[in-house]
User: What shape does this take?
Amino acid sequence: APVADLVQGGVTVALGTDGPGSAGDLDMIEETRLAALLGKLVRDDPSAVPAQTALALATFNGVAALGLGDEVGTITEGASADGIVVTRTRAHMVPGYDPIVDIVYSASRCDVESVFVAGRPLMLDGRLLTLDEERIVARCRELARRYTS
Assistant: This one.
């Protein structure tokens, strides 16, 4: 898609994933990176979709596209308080000059350490707080065996 042209034309472009059946892994960090890189390729211009624009496509623009208003998508009093904490201490994040550039071009989903929704922690320090991951994985494997045999 001509993302840079659409953004320059005033179109609200937002990123998302539509399910593992077609998108593979529901990885928004990878979708953000691909939007930045493919936007440069489509335009044959290394400055076409800068990291800041790509991150906005995955965050603020999604809020705007869904018409959710000012109560989400910002760090302000009264906002929903959704967010993630991304570590920048691992080797692939070095030298670490710009946190937005690091997240868009170097981070992976494995670098997300904590997740908050409406101020409530769902994951802290890499540990899920509201789901039993082992039980979910075991059930998925059981169902996969059942439906592929």
